[in-house]
Amino acid sequence: MKKINYEGINIYFLLLFIVLLIVNSWFFYFGYVENLEVYFISSIFLTVMFFSMVKGLAPGLVSSLITIFLYSTYLMVRQFFLPGRKEITIEEIFWIPVIPIGAFIGGRIHDFYQKLYNRVKEVEYSIDELVTLDEETGLNNRKNFIFSVEEEIKRGKRYGGRFAIVLIRINFLKEFREQYGESAKKRLIKMVAERINTIFRLEDKKARLADDEFGAILIGVSEDTLSIIKNRIKETLSFIDVKVGEEHFKRVRLYINVGWAFFPEDGEDFSLLYAKAKHNYEFDVD
Description:
single chain, alpha+beta, Alpha-Beta Plaits, 2 domains, 4-stranded antiparallel sheet, two-stranded antiparallel ribbon, 6 strands, elongated
């Protein structure tokens, strides 16, 4: 889902403001606006409305009051102090109530789009909460992995039992992307995910936890079994043929770190288990 950009809405308001100023200038240039004063005050009216659209009703009304005060002061000075006195016309008085009305309309437009923006953000957040799969690999994402680990912890505390989490890190992925590009990196990650699916059992929950990190939850395994799985992971992921150009394939040597942690020996919450498994793969040098 494409996310709404509130700053983008302000840009649309700015474009509308510019168009209206151009139209106002066009009317003045071709004589539809009688004099410079009317053109000037109508431009100020548009500016106040635009300010209200961007900043909201209260700032817009304040700016309109300041504008009315300055405009009224100008009319009075012109009437009583400037040579060649010019009578104040109905058309000029017309702008005094119209300017705050414009500010009010702009403020209401601002409030409408603010509410729309907040509602869309709530919907986006709800959708993000429902999404459980990683888009690139089709595996579970980090959020779903954490939830699954926490569910296994609750089950283990209630009924007893033991499980392990396994972490797999791909080293030098950033360097691969810098050399061959983002598309090649995505193809590589997808192939890694496909192979990870073949390594673990169907009932084992696999996930992509970060750009270069995968994880799995294994029920009913021992240290000896995990040692076998570790060797299988490194053997299966040691070399991958990946497309790095239009018709060019490259055999990539992957450097993999594997670490694991057991519940309940290594911790009874996700953060402890994850930290232990990550600590183990940091020291996985074979």
